[in-house]
Amino acid sequence: MAHESQPMRINQLRIQNYRTLRDVTFKELAPLTVLCGPNGSGKSTVFDVFAFLYDAFTSGLRASWDRRNRISEIRSRGSTGPVTFELKYRASISGGNPRLVTYRLAVDERAGVPVVVEEKLQWTTALGSGRPRDILSFENGRGTTWDEETGEATTEELASPDLLAVSALGQFQSHPRVKVLRDFITGWYLSYLSVDDTRNIPTAGPARRLSQTGDNLPNVVQYLQENHPDRLNEIFEVLARRVPWLERVESETLADGRLLLRLKDAPFSEPVLSRYVSDGTLKLLAYLIVLYDPEPPTVIGIEEPENQLHPKLLPILAEEIRQVSSRSQVLVTTHSPEFVNEIRPKELWTISRGADGYAGVRRASDDEKVLAMVKQGAQLGWLWNEGYLTSADPADV
Q1: In what helix (H) or strand (E) does residue 157 lie, and over which residues does it extend?
Q2: What residues have CB less than 8 Å from 192, skipping those under 6 apart?
Q3: At 86, is the pLDDT very low, low, confident or very high (cuts 50, 70, 90)?
Q4: DSSP secondary-structure letter at 45?
Q5: pLDDT at residue number 40
Q6: b vs e for 274-299, b when ≥16 Cβ sit within 10 Å of the residue's Cβ?
Q7: What is the mean pLDDT of residues 88-101?
């Protein structure tokens, strides 16, 4: 029996020894996950876990490690042992039955260099149950892989213990299950959008995906104009409904080869340069380009979308994000009750730091009092304002 292809989703994430996240587990993650809490609670640290893994798979573990100032700034204060991440998700090969998959990565440091002390990829052997099989198991650059054609294990050795076996072997078609994970993680998009960067005038040339800061926004508009005009028109239609006076957005190549972004207001005959457009309009355009990507990212991370956006636009943005969560898993961190009002209890997690300085998390749907009030018509943002969301308010810290 054929099975419809379902987007891969992280079902569970466990983080150990990563900054304030000494031991935190997110279970039964929804397609849309929203994280709220006071300043300094650890929201950005959770976001950075995704960034760390993405950087490690795309730029290399050493670069990701060094970018965060190595073990002294990465490992939880007062802790010993490796920094560990464990992902559980469901995946299938060639349209087969989806299987529960576990990926575990443990990293430590020796002589200032990161070392992969453990890396393991396991697939269950039957739908929903069955004994896990080690597809890949490495320690300190050496390990074994399971050959799916012969059913035999093969010993492998990497060139260096700071290399990720999944990243290296996932480039080969002979390791399809490893490739699925590598493609999944390298397909993430994590947004650190800066409105100032979206006003950039870059060198002309199409770009398929928006950069993390949005500094190539004109290039992505150019790419969509040339390759996906219908999708670009769809983005413009959505934007025009949210910003009624905006008629169209266009990119223009200058004589010196740079690319200019221009936006036209309906009442005026000529478009204006993006540098003269409001922060909120540019940021909403950038978010819509990410959310309406013709080849959607496997995971989308958005940090504090409320910045530079009018509060009335936040419920609208939440609606757009919910629609895209049917094809991409989405993680959002926020301080905005207006945004949280549009979120369901199973999608909302609160985070706070305890007396020991380490963060803990709790899902809103695990609080019976919160569930009872939501069933009576209360919105989660209102409950947050009124102090009913445990650990989400600075007064609770």
Answers
A1: strand 153-157
A2: 212, 213, 303
A3: very high
A4: H
A5: 86
A6: beebeebbbbbbbbbbbbbbeebbbb
A7: 83
Compute the distance between CA of residue 271 and CA of residue 264 in angstroms, rounded to an integer. Answer: 4
Share of the chain above pLDDT 90, in %: 60
- Quote the CA–CA distance of 343 and 22 in Å, as a whole number: 27
Say which residues have a Cβ less than 8 Å from residue 78's Cβ, sequence separation at least 6: none
Q: Which residues are within 8 A (CB) of 12 and not within 5 positions of it... i.e. 6 or more apart?
A: 25, 26, 27, 28, 29, 86, 87, 88
Which pLDDT score, from 0 to 100, does residue 396 have? 47
pLDDT of residue 3: 43
SS (H, E, C) 135-150: EEEEECCEEEEECCCC
Residue given tokens 């959008």 in the structure block:
193
- Bridge-based pairing of strands 259-265 and 113-126 is unpaired
Which pLDDT value is given to residue 270?
A: 58
Report the amino acid identity of residue 126: A
Coil, strand, or helix at residue 353?
Answer: strand
Question: Predicted confidence band at 273 (pLDDT cuts at 50, 70, 90)?
Answer: low
Q: Which of 77, 81, 14 is nearest to 49 (CA)?
A: 14
The DSSP H or E segment spanning 225 is: helix 217-227
Contact 45, 352 (CB under 8 A): no
Distance CA 267, CA 292 (A): 27
Instruction: Compute CA distances 381 → 170, 361, 378, 389, whole Å.
Output: 42, 18, 9, 9
Answer for the pair 127, 116: CB distance below 8 angstroms, yes or no.
no
How far, in whole angstroms, is CA 35 from its chain's centroid?
12
The β-bridge relationship of strands 348-353 and 10-18 is unpaired
Domains for the chain: give ranges and CATH numbers.
Answer: 10-185+352-363 (3.40.50), 190-296 (no CATH)
In the block, residue with structure tokens 């990243």: 167
